[in-house]
Amino acid sequence: MINIVKYFWVLLFVFFGTFSIRAQKTIPQVETLLSQMTLEEKIGQLNLLTPGGGIATGSVVSKNVEDKIKAGKVGGVFGVAGPEKVKQAQDIAIKNSRLKIPLLIGSDIIHGYKTTYPIPLGVSSSWDIALIEKAARLAAKEATADGINWNFSPMVDIARDPRWGRIAEGAGEDPYLGAKIAEAMVKGYQGTDLTQPNTMLACVKHLALYGAPEAGRDYHTVDMGKVKMYNQYLPPYKAAVDAGVATVMTSFNDIDGVPASGNQWLMTHLLREQWGFDGFVVSDYTSVNEMIAHGLGDLQAVSAQAINAGLDMDMVGEGFLTTLKKSVEDGKVTEAQITQACRRILEAKYKLGLFEDPYRYSDAKRPAQDILTKENRSLAKEIATKSFVLLKNHNEVLPLKQTANVALVGPLAHSRNNMLGTWAPTGELKLAVTVLEGLNNNFPNVSISYAKGANITDDPELAKKVNVFGPRVQVSDQSPETLMNEAINLAQASDVVVAVVGEATEMSGEAASRTDISIPESQKKLINALVKTGKPTVLVLMSGRPLTIQEEFDLPVSILQVWHPGVEAGNAIAEVLYGNYNPSGKLTATWPRNIGQIPIYHSAKRTGRPASVTGEFQKFKSNYLDTPNTPLLAFGYGLSYTTFEYSNLTVDKREIKQGEPVEVSVTLKNTGDYDGVEVVQLYLRDVVRSITPPKKQLKGFQKVFLKKGETKKVTITLSPDDLKFYNNNLEFVAEPGIFEVFVGTNSDTQLKTVFDLK
Ligand code: BGC
């Protein structure tokens, strides 16, 4: 009897469950199409292939793609670009496959399409949300002009371990800022109407927690409790979903022991049921197959697990294509499950208007109109200038004077191949402007002499590993001594030294984790030798991650962090070095003093045995024997050529009720000699609550321009949600009690006020 009752409820649930999904979403054209499809054709739509035109990030590249499209075995491809090529691909599907279903054309447009912006970690350092949305909009315009209708971006993985090379690809360590950026990018790519030929499907990735691999090693295990997940790591993915992102990509790692691509809790419970996501989910590159290596069974078993868990599309691995039919026959997967995945993919094609016009993205006139336009290049330059972070300005050497003779040295000073940064497969390397060119272009009257001075690394083995996509590190035929002497001679004959040093582009990015994140030895030697000349020295530091630069920081040098700045690299750097733009970037990931401090981030919790406030070592306190707890450079840190003073921090009410906003105001004065932009940052500390609170958390910011001598009142409004957190039951709540509000120039700010939530 009990069994019959149970069976009845299961049936009822399946019936209404299916009914409610359909009632919510049915698109008649898609339903008609589905009713005509064979099981094999439905499975075909779940298959995403690449003929190998882009970066193949796994060990396989798809074979016989054309035949498979004709046979109705492909739902989308990536690595194909250009209106003509995309038209050919669509032709194969439209003219040869039985049901003439158009293809999705995907691509990784991570920081600009052909007009490459700085790496995303750099872009995030601008804290300029409107600019980030605009950049995504223009990237979509360029990419769609080249036939692409689906972007594998934004990458929103929170990263607190700079050993992990893909920290370069995201917005850093903070969930609040990360969520704002995720939302802006989705809006930028998708626009307001996906049927417009200059908008595209966005794909938020990598769900989930991919940025927290053990030991910072790519693809490694992730182990994290739910409270931390919900509060610290999931907000950017959720923000993308709330912004209407059309697709989601899973991550390579496991979560609670189950790889993301086979994780039902993740894809079904969290993403669809809790967050209400109604688009489709794609795996990462062969991540379904990789579940075999994770130890979850053979290809048929892992593919069945993936689709049953809620994965809709299989990237490159063809596990769905080759095993799902058998799994249906074996009773391991239902046809309804496959139909549902297929429905979601067809709906995405429908949303793009591809059924109406499969050639919507194949307008041969568009590339010339939309790609690498003056407007796009000037945007790339603007973003680059705004992404630079002034880490140190020794003796206020910066901005440089145009009367000074410059010795421009360093292995990255004239290295076109390293300007675009990692994950820029669609960028135009040959157009990238080097620092030498940028200085010469923009300041033709300044006397500039150039010498390489050092190799990026002298280690040929490392060079080989980072040269996978072409020469990034060229170990010179000249000896390191000869290279260095040349640079020192130039330095001695000049008024000021600008040394462009740091990482080659592929020293960060995918599968580019490092256990030593300092400046490579060859360049350290150069820097030290330059400093010994006694000439004022500016380090222009390029990297895809926070570096450990304690030694260089302690030298009498100025340091401008420029990431990998994109196609306009040299022009942007020249503008900032000479003060045409006053740097305003702020770090979005903490810079540790040394590798042993990792993970280190501003919103860490206090312990029961906090270290002394003076930083002095105390036995039986939470501190190190050999290093302070504080980082070298805090989250939010960044200097300007001018100085700012904060005062009069107030809240509009000392007591608030649940659901009420709070207005926080501060007076900001430009006290220096230049006009400038400050990123005013607001941090909140929930003093007492039911689970241990972080020391402080970013909950608001505003970019403010002030002329020299100018004073402004800056107001930031905290919304009721800004006071909330996920408690132990994973309920999103604000608990009564005192909140401390900190406002200032970085996360170390001590300027404080309080309010009381009743
Ligand atoms: C990366 C993804 C990317 C995919 C397709 C994978 O290796 O993890 O971010 O979208 O390749 O290029």
Termini separation: 52 Å
From the 3D structure, determine the CATH topology of the domain at 378-597. Answer: Rossmann fold
Bound molecules: beta-D-glucopyranose
Largest sheet: 8 strands, parallel
Based on CA inertia axes, which overall geometry fits?
globular
Percent of residues in helices comes to 25-40%
Q: How many strands in all?
A: 26
Proper CATH architecture of the domain at 378-597:
3-Layer(aba) Sandwich
Q: β content, as a range?
A: 15-25%
Low-pLDDT stretches are 1-23
Class computed from helices, strands and strand pairing: alpha/beta
Mean pLDDT: 95
Order of strands side by side in the largest beta sheet? 9-6-5-4-3-2-1-10
Please work out how many helical segments DSSP would assign: 23
Integer-rounded radius of gyration: 27 Å
CATH superfamily of the domain at 378-597: Glycoside hydrolase family 3 C-terminal domain
CATH class of the domain at 378-597: Alpha Beta
